[in-house]
Amino acid sequence: MSFSKEWDFRYKNNTNMSIWPWSDLVSYVMRYAPPDKHDFQVLELGCGAGANIPFFESLGVKYFAMEGSETIVNSLKQKFPRFKKKIIIGDFTETIPFQNHFDLVVDRSSLTHNTTKGIKRCLDLIYEKLKNGGKYIGIDWFSTLHSEYGNGITDDDFFTKKNYTSGQFVNVGKVHFSDKSHITELLNRFDILVLEHKVVRTEIPNENKVFASWNIVVQKNI
Questions:
Q1: Residue 201 belongs to what H/E stretch?
Q2: Which contiguous run of DSSP H or E holds residue 56?
Q3: Which of 105, 137, 190, 210 is most buried by its number of CB atoms within 10 A?
Q4: Which of 140, 114, 157, 131 is nearest to 196 (CA)?
Q5: How far apart are CA 179 and CA 162, in angstroms?
Q6: Boundaries of every domain in the chain
Q7: What homologous superfamily does CATH list for 5-219?
Q8: d(Cα 121, Cα 127) in Å, to the nearest integer?
Q9: Sign of the C-alpha dihedral computed for residues 20, 22, 23 and 28 taken in this order
């Protein structure tokens, strides 16, 4: 059963099929949370088409993942049969059913496709699933400076939009945007180690189109 109909539809139609590890995620993991023991355990939320799996496999960590699309999870289990029991379908804003406690939880632009309430629930679940001193790395949480924040229709709260008819967020369901005060409030249970605001303005073509997002590193209190 898929927990994200919009993303399941996109994967069925072979869109958003990224297969190369995201450079920001790679650099943040290696800079701020490099595996330092043989049984280092990593959980990826919203693994999508599995772009980051080869990276984590190369590190020799114990890798687990949750994804909302049944279509892509079934595909991943065929592509990576060794992870068949470690990649599951689920709604990580409601439950993280693995019995493990993790050294690192990562998410690249996945948690940001939920409402404020859903993100808060998930962050609480992440906190409980992290080992003491464990870290969460979030890559590309969309910023309120993003050009698309002014478009779409407001959903459950001021920071969440939906029903985009053009641009990068067509048919992806909910899209959440954050400013600094909102994001620090969401992360108030953690020690914030890094909060980077990335703003990229396209001059040619589509003059003044802005992609803006946050990269995050937080730690569970030791």
A1: strand 191-202
A2: helix 53-58
A3: 105
A4: 140
A5: 18
A6: 5-219
A7: Vaccinia Virus protein VP39 (3.40.50.150)
A8: 10
A9: negative
Token couple for 100: 């493990």
Burial (Cβ within 10 Å: 0-12, 13-18, ≥19) of residue 151: middle
Euclidean distance between CA atoms 26 and 44, whole angstroms: 13
Residue 32 token pair: 């701020």
CA-wise closest residue to 131 among 155, 106, 103? 103
- Is the pTM above the cut of 0.90? yes
Distance, in Å, from the CA atom of 142 to the CA atom of 139, rounded to the nearest integer, reads 9
As a 3-state breakdown, the chain gives helix, strand, coil percent values, each rounded to 5, of 30, 30, 40
- Alpha carbon distance 209, 54 (integer Å): 32
User: Tokens in use for 217?
Assistant: 């590193």
